[in-house]
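2 proteins. here.
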Amino acid sequence: MADTALVIGGTRFIGRHVVEDLLDHDYEVTIFNRGNHENPFADHDDVTRVEGDRRDDTDLKAAALSVQPDIVIDCVAYYPEDVRVAVDLFSDVDGYVYISSGSAYAAEEIPKREGETALCDCTDEQATDDSHASYGPRKAEGDRIVFEAAEDGVNAMSVRPCIVYGPHDYTERLDYWIDRVLNYDRVVVPGDGQNLWHRAYVEDVASALRVVAEEGEPGEAYNVGDRRLVTMEEMVDLVADAADTDCEVVHAGEHELAAAELSPDDFILYRDYPHVLDTDKLAALGWESTPLAEAMERSVADHRDSDRDGSEHDPGREAEERVLGVLDTL
């Protein structure tokens, strides 16, 4: 008899890939969500959907009783209370895996290591706040709840992804850069192009969640990210190679950007101080990451098939053209 998996979420981005990975490894899968987004598995005989709100304890308890899963992958636990309820309801499963975040780390260290790098504190106010500023503290508090549950015998673990990219990415962060490469010969990159923000290919995040559920140690956290990191300029070059096109990367410092009333932070995926996660602990479980060229080829192909353009993150091409004009006069 196949193992059963319950995926809380399961239709948008990471959760969608989790379901596909579980199916590829012969799990019987149930997804639990409110139905606010189109279900890509509606016609899939091996995926059952249970409708409910994970923040409604009655709904979640009903799902736990009806599915009786062997493992649970929790994709949409955004508040500490979500995790607290889940580790109680799923206290007898073989593996409960909470998706935390690299944002849970409080210290700027290179690299950030599980069990060594300090986590964010979380106040009572932050625990219920839904702002971006409280995201890291809320995720860190969820980690601590997982650790406490494991001490009480619950097979609970957490996975901390960095910036996730790949097919079906509704955040469109990478889509902005793909769109630039596909449509312009010259792409403005802030600074010297050497800034480093660790990214994780979504299929690798999905496989990490399954591997941790199967092989992880209760009470442990596992970082996940590409095993080979690339700078922002190298990322743009990877996009160009995957798209089989050429583009010129143009570096723009703060002075040149300021001429167009821009700053480096106006460019999505730019980060001044490097954000790097150590992934050795996850790799020791047998997890592997997709080669970057292959990951980018899939990401570019999906972008071309979608209507995503990353325009939400666009600093303005007219402003970029002014920057290019300034640089051309130097």
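next one coming up
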Amino acid sequence: MSRVCLARLARCSRPHGHNSVFQMALIQQPLQQNRQSQTRRQLHSPSERRHSNTRFDPDSSGQPTTWDSFGIWDNRIDEPILLPSSIRYGKPIPKVSLSKVGCASLIGQRKENEDRFQVSQMTDRIMYFAVFDGHGGPEAADFCEKYMETFIKDLVSEEENLATVLTKAFLEVDKAFAKHLHFFPNSPATNAGTTATVALLRDGIELVVGSVGDSRAMLCRRGKVLKLTDDHTPERKDEKMRIKKSGGFITWNSLGQPNVNGRLAMTRSIGDFDLKTMGVIAEPETKAISLHPVHDSFLALTTDGINFIMNSQEICNVINQCNDPKEAAQRISEQALQYGSEDNSTIIVVPFGAWGKHKSSDPSFSFSRSFVSSGRWA
């Protein structure tokens, strides 16, 4: 029975004396408080559950719909909001914290770890992530680790387009490495080279990736992998055509792997100067993409010690089962070795707004994989 009915019943059944007035006051007081509470605006913290209703909770999960549908923030995102970026782009953008980025690099069955990686807050607005997989010695990877960020930082002050910045930086680093080796003509490092996969994240939402070689960058969106790079191998028709037009040739080793001039399993790299006249170039392919914080879980950069033994969706699924990016990076690098990879295994995992949202992704893995060496040299 409602409070209004109770009030009417009390009014009709009791004489109008002091006691009845007192009882009516007791009944009306909660009614007034209830009306005031209904007119008062309800405030909710980002992590607080709301009661279900048809507009904001269509699946009765107790969670509101995302901000890109109704203009409200998804309460599954616990990261603080980047206020300047959010104002600049007109929508809430969560902060990416370097302290939460996961990194791992294992030597595997090699005598030396020639992989290098780097993460940094390069400028107030731009974050820098990079992996370099050296071959023929670690010198080229070491040089990129030391100078690539510096070249990019200098170019960013003059050029707004990040894809253009990455293209210029890769070419300038390659030239600088050539000059560096000019002072050591008898050094074994003259034939050294490296892959380079670099990602720049500006304002927490603008992601640009540049890559040469077969290290990869991938984005997990709605639990599915989105490849941001394509391997530069002689198997690609466009890459093979450039090599042949430049006077180079393609051979296959005993494992069936194609190689440029019988020794290099990639068609683009930094270094490898003895093959530059044969069509091996340092110009990267770039890709720019805008992040969707409520759908994008993470960015992963990997070297071929992982890529040659685990496919991209499998990497995405394994990471989605982990509690945090650091655990994910360690698990992926170790799992690649357990599956039979003999190469160095390096990975960077950068969490975004939807981290942990897709833990229900398919955890099944394929065990029918190729257990061959992932070396680039024949």
